[in-house]
Design brief:
The complex is a heterodimer of chains A (about 50) and B (about 230). By secondary structure, chain A is α+β, with helices and mostly antiparallel strands. Helices cover about 55% and strands about 20% of the residues of chain A. In chain A, a hairpin with a 5-residue loop joins strand 1 and strand 2 (about 15-20). The mean pLDDT of chain A is about 90. Chain B has a domain at about 5-70 and about 105-175. Chain B has a two-stranded antiparallel sheet with strand order 1-2. The longest helix of chain B has 30 residues, at about 145-175. Chain B starts with a strand and ends in a 27-residue tail after the last helix. The chains are: A alpha+beta (about 50), B mainly alpha (about 230). The interface of A and B includes residues 17 and 39 of A.
Chain lengths: ~50, ~230
């Protein structure tokens, strides 16, 4: 998966034009993973302390 | 419940928070919806929201420097000690009970630091990018910087903008967690109950008028194990 977007300049050179928009879903995924992991950890902690 | 209240967020700070939220969400929606396939004329709304975000951030910086307790949001040795004790106890090593927080917890300070870096980078690069569009106030000058420099600016702007998606998801997740609702409500009406203040905060580190420190069994100040 590309991390960056490139274009060809009028001089024929490859130039960086920005970050790859495919990364959006990785950032969304990171948020989902954090939330699920934290919620699971809190639920497990609560269960172990109440039992 | 006694009904006594402790002011946590002044009206100016709540207005700043919700203005920043509205501006940042507008920037995100106008940036990413067209990329995801929803085509509309997004540039005008995007740069106007960016200007609003910039003004809000400047307002917050000035207010934090001159009207608020700037150091209340800076991580200090006691925050590091508390974090270490929390980790040690979570891993089963035992050790002393972590102290209660001042106004903000170490994790809140860390999150604020992260958001500050990300948003300041977005604002700084966004202001530079304004020179590439025509507005009623200025004409575009796309040749101000070299292509490679623009590429770097666009990359930073894009990467940090995508990172705000993760940060906002985590922020909202914590805001709606049941054990955090007492804090979330204060961003709407400004105050927390005195019971929550005594339960979660150390009055010596965040003194408010008429607050009395809660005593834990065996002496010392109490710590809330729910944190």
């Amino acid at each position: 998966m590309p991390l960056f977007r490139y274009a060809t300049s009028v001089y024929g050179q490859t130039v960086l034009v920005g970050a790859s928009w495919d990364l959006i879903w990785w950032f969304v995924g990171a948020g989902v993973v954090f939330i699920v992991a934290h919620a699971a950890a809190k639920a497990l902690t609560r269960r172990s302390t109440s039992s | 419940m006694s009904g006594a209240r402790v002011l946590r967020h002044h009206l100016a700070d709540r207005l700043y928070h919700w203005t920043m939220a509205a501006a940042l969400l507008t920037c995100l929606f106008t940036a990413f919806l067209p990329i995801l396939g929803w085509k509309f004329e997004w540039v005008t709304a995007h740069w106007i929201a960016g200007i609003v975000l910039t003004v809000a951030v400047l307002f917050h910086i000035v207010r934090a420097l001159f009207w608020q307790d700037f150091w209340s949001m800076v991580i200090g040795p006691r925050d590091l000690r508390k974090s270490w004790r929390l980790v040690a106890r979570a891993l089963g090593f035992g050790g002393p009970v972590p102290q209660r927080d001042a106004k903000y917890s170490p994790l809140q300070k860390s999150f604020h630091m992260l958001v500050a870096v990300v948003v300041l980078a977005i604002v700084a690069t966004g202001l530079l990018m304004l020179s590439k569009i025509d507005t009623p106030f200025w004409r575009r000058n796309p040749y101000w910087l070299a292509d490679s420099q623009w590429g770097l600016i666009y990359t930073i702007h894009g990467l940090f903008a995508m990172a705000t998606i993760t940060l906002i998801m985590v922020h909202i997740y914590f805001a709606v967690r049941p054990e955090k609702l007492w804090m979330t409500r204060s961003m709407f009406h400004g105050w927390i109950s005195r019971e929550d203040y005594m339960r979660h905060h150390d009055p010596q580190r965040w003194p408010v008028p008429d607050a009395q420190p809660a005593q834990r069994e065996g002496g010392g100040t109490a710590y809330s194990p729910g944190e």
